[in-house]
TrEMBL record:
InterPro entries: MFS_dom, MFS_trans_sf, TM_effector. The chain crosses the membrane at residues 23-44, 56-76, 88-106, 118-136, 156-181, 188-207, 236-261, 273-293, 299-318, 389-408. This is MFS transporter. Residues 17-414 form the Major facilitator superfamily (MFS) profile domain. Its main location: membrane. PROSITE patterns: MFS (PS50850). The keyword Nucleus does not apply. Coiled coil: none annotated. Gene3D superfamilies: MFS general substrate transporter like domains. The keyword Acetylation does not apply.
Amino acid sequence: MSEQLTPPSAKKSPYEALKYPQFVAYMFANSFITMALLIQEVLLGYEMYKVTHDPMALGLIGLAEALPYISLALFGGHLADLYNKKTILMLSLSVIILSSVILVWATHSTTQLPQHNLLPIIYGVIFLIGLAKGFYSPASSSLNPFLIPKEVFANATTWASSFWQAGAILGPGLAGFMYAYWGLTNSLWFVVALLCTVMLLISTITAPPIPEKVEEKVNIFQSLKEGIAFVFKTKIILYSISLDLFSVLFGGVIALLPIYAEDILKVGAEGLGILRAAPSIGAILTMFMMVYFPPLKHAWRNLLLAVGGFGLATLIFAVSTNLWISVIALFFTGAFDSVSVIVRQTVLRYWTPDEMRGRVSAVNGIFVSSSNEIGAFESGVLAKLMGTVPSVIFGGTMTMIIVSIVWIRSKELFKMKVTD
């Protein structure tokens, strides 16, 4: 497919994508699994930091999930292009549910595991979830475009991202309060219930047919090579996901929030919930605004400005010692990040052929996973070596530098127009 810069479009209602029931079911499923896994992440991160008081413990959580995901995501994308996407989702989700049940058992008061046994079990379960996500994420991302017509991709992206952000708000926001009032194990039971709900929603979706071009069995290595080559030759896709990779890899502070809550701002578990929810509140409010005012007329310019704003807000958060200034700064990191999500996901949907969606989604997922989970490990390492605040200042500064470099090197993409 050629790198066309201006796809055909027509003016649609802001609610056009909501006319498709299976897409709505997909949105709720995506929101609930996001909510469940983020609740679990916050609960485990806070518990492990309370037990160890070691920033590396937080970084290792990200690494334990990222390594298996990155190792399998391309293979998962290959399978998503060849086989029934719904079946892959259901099997992967079953593994995630089983893993979460193991966490309930391991943290239950009657189990009474010593720390030297509990920590390896937690890391092992996170590793298992990362393996399952290596198959689940490419299948889920590649399923989405089949649920709605191509002409409403941009509108669907906005709604899907908004529902995802709703889960991202409620998950971290609830987690701190759940930990404080329900305890760790009961909160993990809630996670299991949410994941079971996701399975019910996915069961209502009809799997799309396998594209004709991939009905024949192909060499897996050739298949993966084609997916990677497509991303690297399509500059719009390559630059957009690379920008997300490096900005969040260096500028992300989410993994260090337990340290800020416990040692710097001294606001405890409830304050951690507020801090974790702030970026997603900013993101979802911005998403709803973009239903009416999509950022696609000057998409590349808006993307670069948004990532630059993300870096600036990160620097403000880094030096703040006031809870509400910190919350406002995190709010704006989410608001700016939501703009890049809309642009990047719309680009992926428009310029990826149907028969390659699984593999391209996998490459994109690896970039996103690298920026989040590997970024969490990087944050933990730098916080241990440099101190928490200097490491966040370093990350925000690197984000600003990266935006400047990409701005200079991608001038031809300022001509890109994506209108809904």
